[in-house]
Amino acid sequence: MSNFLLIHGSCHGAWCWRDLIPALRARGHQARAIDLPSHGSDGTPLADVTLDMYAEAILKAMTGPTILVGHSMAGFPISRAAELDPTNIRRLVYVCAYAPRNGMTLADMRRDAPYQPLMKAVIKAPDGISFGIDPTMAPDVFYHDCPPETVSYAQTRLGQQPIKPQETAIEIGANYAAVPKSYIRCDQDRTIPPEYQRTMTENWPAEDVHAMNCSHSPFFADPIRLAGLLHMIAGDN
């Protein structure tokens, strides 16, 4: 069985994997999640956070051969972690995530998408260091097909997202290229357009691209199905 390390996206924390972790463990896998710097219970000041700090936190949290699962924004830090040290990374799995292009920032890629569904919900902090999500809009952009209890659980836990890591051009090369990769597209996504998820993976082998008919939060909308896909992907290694 496999060892999964789950990495959250913008404004989220390890808490968002609440329902997926037991579903993976029920299939015999090891599964853990971490709070990236400044997220969840991590007290790193927002102004100090960098993309490499994210990547280094991921590498530090790994225990032996690991499948890294990155949601949304976390596509960038898991990719950078693979470039810095691919030794124990068995596979990168992008869950409706940004699959980066060398030299681009996450913000560049967001702007490259055909439309910007998330921006209506973004509230930039007055100091320009971070942004948050309008709580009244979070259900629509993140959780429109999730159970009401789950939406309430998530809304109270959303935090601020440091901007600097998303405005940092990623450097990825041979190390990153050598790591196996899979992508799980979400076809009802209202945060990263599904069309753009197709664009990001248009040159990937067909067997490495999967789809779920759900929102941007498959770990809440359909954790059993997501666990099944991850189980199948792990079997490819």
Summary tags:
237 residues, six-stranded parallel β-sheet, Alpha/beta fold hydrolase
Which geometry do the CA atoms define?
Answer: globular
CATH topology heading = Rossmann fold
CATH architecture: 3-Layer(aba) Sandwich
Q: Structural class per helix/strand content?
A: alpha/beta
InterPro entries: AB_hydrolase_1, AB_hydrolase_fold, MES/HNL
GO molecular function: hydrolase activity
Protein name: Alpha/beta fold hydrolase
Keywords: Hydrolase
Write the layout of secondary structure elements.
Layout lengths: L2 E5 L12 H7 L3 E5 L16 H11 L4 E6 L3 H10 L4 E7 L10 H7 L9 E3 L5 E4 L4 H5 L5 H8 L5 E2 L11 H5 L2 E6 L7 H7 L8 E4 L5 H4 L1 H12 L3
Parallel strand pairs: 1-2, 1-3, 3-4, 4-8, 8-9
Antiparallel strand pairs: 5-6, 6-7
Helix pairs in contact: 1-10, 2-3
Question: What does it look like?
Answer:
The chain is of the alpha/beta class and 237 residues long. The protein has a single domain, classed as Rossmann fold. The chain has ten helices and nine strands. The protein has helices at 20-26, 51-61, 75-84, 106-112, 138-142, 148-155, 174-178, 194-200, 218-221, 223-234; strands spanning 3-7, 30-34, 66-71, 89-95, 122-124, 130-133, 161-162, 181-186, 209-212. It has a six-stranded parallel β-sheet with strand order 2-1-3-4-8-9, sandwiched between helices. Strands 5-6-7 form a three-stranded antiparallel β-sheet, with no helix packed on it. The chain is globular, with a radius of gyration of 16 Å. It starts with a strand and ends with a helix. The mean pLDDT is 97. Keywords: Hydrolase. Residues 4-227 form the AB hydrolase-1 domain. InterPro entries: AB_hydrolase_1, AB_hydrolase_fold, MES/HNL. GO terms for molecular function: hydrolase activity. It holds the Pfam family Abhydrolase_6.
